[in-house]
Design goal:
Elements (H helix, E strand, L loop, with lengths): L1 E4 L5 H13 L3 E6 L4 E6 L7 H5 L4 E5 L19 E3 L2 E3 L5 E5 L6 H14 L3 E3 L16 H15 L3 E4 L14 E4 L7 H8 L5 E4 L6 H13 L5 E5 L17 H8 L4 E3 L1 H5 L2 H13 L4 E5 L17 H17 L1
Parallel strand pairs: 7-8, 7-14, 8-9, 9-10, 10-11, 11-12, 12-13, 13-14
Antiparallel strand pairs: 1-3, 1-4, 2-3, 5-6
The structure holds phosphoenolpyruvate (PEP) and manganese (II) ion (MN).
Length: 332
């Protein structure tokens, strides 16, 4: 981090400022030019409040030259993180598709969909039991019963499973779940992130609706700083001024995150578009951009789905998507 001082800052003020920085555990490197004086802060500056520094009278501007996330940062961990779930590996160059319904609706529904997505090449089964719905009157999920059906589908098909956790108090229910999903709305629920950081289960962290990539990585940092290195990042579309799609898929998040971090990256074109016919083209884009996999909503009867039917693919549409993305991944 560098702090550029205003013209006319006195020697005494510089001394005061450098000792204040040093009290915060960093070393200071003073550089006095003809026009500008700069203090370079050396060491771990992640806890330094840049806005507070910027607000000081003698400060012209402050710039971070190293990112505030350390454990998620590729600079400190050049090799890709590889996460194992069952006999599936994520982040090693292979391509994994997590597919299934938005919500688990019944035992037969999840088992039927699990078999269909497995036959089409999905390697992980998804299904929501705790649903973060905008309306409190909308279907909230089957909760504990839903997780029970999901585990039955896992036993029936052998597919590892992912499902969303909204409250750390529910953790005991997730014992047999392979990947914990943190939804977009909870990306900055820091107490939840810290609690998941105390487990050793892989966590799929979805980007918040209006979050920057740095904020996503800082949320990953929360989980990792609490001791759990098994974080998977997920781009699921962000809110923009465009209304033709539910969200706007930020495809460039994939190469940017790849550069900044060693964590695996999953693209979710279902929530990004909200429209079933746009899911395949955006799945192809995410694959071409270099994602480690996709998360796709599939339903045997989208019209009757209890949530997100408009964006859910039928098993036949999903199979078609899988063939397209397999070709793209092979071409890479
Ligand atoms: C979901 O995966 O069903 C979901 C609610 O996703 P998001 O948190 O990205 O909206
Ligand atoms: Mn959904």
């Amino acid at each position: 981090m560098i702090a550029i001082l205003k013209k006319g800052t006195t020697e005494n003020e510089i001394k005061e400022l450098t000792s204040w920085f040093e009290e915060q555990g960093v070393r200071c490197h003073l550089s006095k030019g003809d026009y500008q004086t700069i203090i370079g802060l050396i060491g771990d500056t992640s806890h330094i409040d840049t806005e507070l520094v910027e607000s000081l009278d003698m400060i012209e501007s402050v710039r971070r030259i190293s990112e505030p996330f350390k454990k998620a940062n590729r600079k400190f961990h050049p090799d890709n993180t590889v996460i194992k779930v069952g006999n599936v590996t994520i982040g090693d160059g292979s391509f994994n598709v997590m597919a299934g319904p938005c919500s688990i609706e019944s035992e037969t529904q999840i088992i039927e969909i699990a078999k269909a997505v497995k036959a089409a090449g999905a390697t992980i089964l998804r299904g929501g039991a705790f649903k973060p719905r905008t309306s409190p009157y909308a279907f909230q999920g089957l909760h504990e019963e839903g997780i029970k059906y999901l585990i039955e589908a896992k036993e029936e098909t052998g597919l590892p499973v992912i499902t969303e956790i909204m409250d750390a108090r529910h953790l005991p229910l997730f014992e047999d779940v392979d990947i914990l999903q943190v939804g977009a709305r909870n990306m900055q629920n820091f107490e939840l992130l810290k609690a998941l950081g105390e487990t050793d289960k892989p966590v799929l962290l979805k980007r918040g609706l209006s979050s920057t990539l740095t904020e996503l990585l800082m949320s990953a940092e929360y989980i990792m700083a609490s001791g759990n290195p098994n974080v998977i990042l997920c781009e699921r579309g962000i809110r923009t001024f465009e209304t033709a799609t539910r969200n706007t898929l930020d495809v460039s998040a994939v190469p940017v995150l790849r550069e900044l971090s060693h964590l695996p990256i999953i693209v979710d074109p279902s929530h990004a578009t909200g429209v079933a016919r746009y899911v395949k083209p955006m799945a192809m884009c995410g694959t071409a951009a270099g994602a480690d996999g996709l998360e796709i909503e599939v339903h045997t009867n989208p019209k009757a789905a209890l949530s997100d039917g408009a964006q859910s693919l039928t098993p036949a549409e999903f199979e078609d998507l899988m063939q397209a993305v397999a070709k793209i991944h092979a071409a890479l």
